[in-house]
């Protein structure tokens, strides 16, 4: 088995992770942060750096998907409660929040 296929197959979602999306998101985010730290140190070989980078891209996509699903659930819950008229979705602007 090649190193790349080992990475891909070792993180295939199981029934356990599918039932705990929040915990899975937290684990993915923690792993992504650890990868960023390793890459920022600059001590890895080129092959190791590429492997870590590839895993980081996978984790980023997974986290983005989990966040999108959570956003959709919130929108559905607001519609069911009749509160969609009370709330409007707006993009998050970190810089604007820092000024408040």
Automatic annotation (TrEMBL):
Entry EC number(s): 3.1.11.6
Subunit structure of this chain's protein: Heterooligomer composed of large and small subunits.
The organism's taxonomic lineage, starting at the top: Bacteria, Pseudomonadati, Pseudomonadota, Gammaproteobacteria, Steroidobacterales
Positions with biased composition (Low complexity): 12-22
Record's catalysed reaction(s): Exonucleolytic cleavage in either 5'- to 3'- or 3'- to 5'-direction to yield nucleoside 5'-phosphates
Its job: Bidirectionally degrades single-stranded DNA into large acid-insoluble oligonucleotides, which are then degraded further into small acid-soluble oligonucleotides.
Family from the record: Belongs to the XseB family.
NCBIfam families: PRK00977.1-3, PRK00977.1-4, xseB
Pfam families noted in UniProt: Exonuc_VII_S
Localization per record: Cytoplasm
InterPro entries to which the protein is assigned, alphabetical: Exonuc_VII_S (IPR003761), Exonuc_VII_ssu_sf (IPR037004)
UniProt main location, coarse: cytoplasm
Region feature Disordered, mapped onto this chain: 1-22
Name under which the protein is recorded: Exodeoxyribonuclease 7 small subunit
Family annotation (Gene3D superfamilies): Exonuclease VII, small subunit
């Amino acid at each position: 088995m090649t190193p790349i296929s080992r990475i891909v197959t070792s993180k295939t979602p199981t029934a356990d992770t599918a039932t705990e999306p929040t915990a899975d998101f937290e684990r993915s985010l923690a792993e992504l942060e650890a990868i960023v730290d390793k890459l920022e140190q600059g001590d890895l070989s080129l092959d190791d750096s590429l492997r870590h980078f590839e895993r980081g891209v996978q984790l980023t996509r997974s986290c983005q998907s989990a966040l999108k699903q959570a956003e959709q659930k919130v929108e559905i819950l607001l519609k069911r409660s009749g509160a969609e008229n009370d709330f409007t979705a707006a993009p998050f602007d970190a810089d604007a929040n820092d000024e408040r």
